[in-house]
Amino acid sequence: MRPLIAIDWGTSSLRGARIGTGGQVLESCEFARGILTVPPGQFETVFNEHFSDWMQAPDALCLISGMAGSRQGWQEAPYCPCPAGFTELGQHLRWLKQNRIALVPGLSCMGEDALNTPDVMRGEEVQIFGALQLAGRDSATLVLPGTHSKWVQVQSGRVTHFQTCMTGEVYGLLSQHSILGKTLDLTGAFEEVAFLQGVDHSQQAGSLLKHLFAVRTLGLFDRVPAKALPSFLSGLLIGEELRHPTGSKLQGPVIVIGSDTLTLRYTLALQHLGMACQSRGAEATWAGLFALACAS
What we know:
Layout: E1 4-9, E2 14-19, E3 25-31, H1 43-51, E4 61-66, E5 80-81, H2 86-91, E6 94-97, E7 101-103, E8 107-110, E9 118-121, H3 124-135, E10 140-144, E11 149-155, E12 158-165, H4 167-177, H5 192-202, H6 208-211, H7 213-220, H8 229-243, E13 254-257, H9 260-272, E14 277-280, H10 283-295
Parallel strand pairs: 1-4, 4-7, 5-8, 10-13, 13-14
Antiparallel strand pairs: 1-2, 2-3, 6-7, 8-9, 10-11, 11-12
């Protein structure tokens, strides 16, 4: 196994890890150099600025996942269609320097609706496979919460289908750019009780558009304190997402992958609704890139 330089280059941040031959993280770093901060044509310069020392090893292999492979990134790495596993990802690597530096493609899948609506992900695919490696599983239901949450089905080591929910983005829009936000105190700490009240309210009859107005009226009538209303809104939106996560296809404990803040909320909501789950953090990215390097 060659020395691996694992890079996660997203919209807002640039993370890297030097991985040993046994998969252990020898060194890691993070910079506020997401793709939106990089001028056109300067990706190689930024990469060399931060990782040239690690690339001194003559046999080092560098795999880069995330938005660096988007149209706004270093180069576009076309999406790999599902169903897909390590074999398919390896076949779709976009080599920037042959056998030396490669971009990992994202995944695409076609929806099961009347429009056969396409869905896409970039970066999450390595987290998915890394989490499965760490859990010792080859089939699972996973959720990757964030600005655009992903619900994923994996069968026999291949992603068969996934769907995106704009939960995080909707939370941001409602809490900062709507009349609901006027009643929220966004400086308060997370309130678990209010969050679970929001989860419960989302499960009641009626649509999300109806339930959302409760955020305003519960504040107006002092039923929920302003400092707890953001947690209530978060619970309401996450609860709505969990109403139809993947239909009847849940496979064992749901694997939740993300930051501590988000995995806590999704774990609380899932368990509150009677769904078993387990969580993984940043280690899933490094495990996934290492497993891909071993398979490529």
